[in-house]
Amino acid sequence: MSRAAETLMDVDAYLAWAAGRGGRWELREGRPVMMAPERAIHALTKAAAYEALKAGVQRGGLPCRVFPDGMTVRINARTAFEPDALVVCPCPPDLNTMEIPNPVIVVEVLSPSTAADDHGAKLDGYFSLPSVEHYLILDPDRRVMIWRKRGLAGAIETLIVRDGLVRLDPPGLEAEVEGFFAA
Fold first, then answer.
1. Residue limits of the Putative restriction endonuclease domain (predicted)?
2. DSSP 136-161
């Protein structure tokens, strides 16, 4: 790791450091962490999720934008995650940005090396943001969607979904669960 990565960073310094750097990175408590290589099923599930969300936004005529992995979500001053896909409404005006503020839906694809993090630190981090209404954890091996959503009085509800139609409201997006998984 470079000397810059050995010192604690805030998210702004991290974004400057990460610009143009190879690989996928996240900032954890001030320290850049390189993300592990992915299995093919992981990459295909990310792509399928992006396409399912994009199609749902288009069908609904929603003023939203869907982004694949590569976008940064600031959790706090020293932590930023890079979800596998996200939806933001409305679309940020500056498309030169590396950071997406106020996502409504965030998606992570489960892998053996990330399961604890996806169900722990990322769950807590994403729902610490008032804008996040839905956090979808996709398990490509079992073809299951673990749907965490903000419920009454802000309580986080958990649904395990294997098939059928999901309605992510807000923003009013509908998609078939099977569409989130690689064929």
1. 12-174
2. EEEETTTTEEEEEEE-GGGPEEEEEE
Q: Say what the pLDDT of residue 112 is.
A: 87
Give the separation between CA 89 and CA 81, rounded to whole angstroms.
19
The whole-angstrom separation of Cα 156 and Cα 120 is 13
Residue of 101, 69, 105 whose CA lies nearest to 85: 69
The class level of CATH for 39-180 reads alpha beta
Closest CA to 86 of 43, 46, 118: 46
Rg, the chain, Cα only: 16
Cross-strand partners of 105? 87, 134
Show me where the domains of the chain are located: 39-180
Count CA within 13 A, CB hemisphere, residue 115.
6
* Lowest-pLDDT choice from 51-55, 69-73, 130-134, 152-156: 152-156
Q: Name the DSSP letter for residue 169.
A: T
DSSP β-ladder status, 65-68 and 103-109: unpaired
SS3 4: helix
Task: Say how many C-beta atoms besides its own lie within 10 A of residue 99's C-beta.
Answer: 15
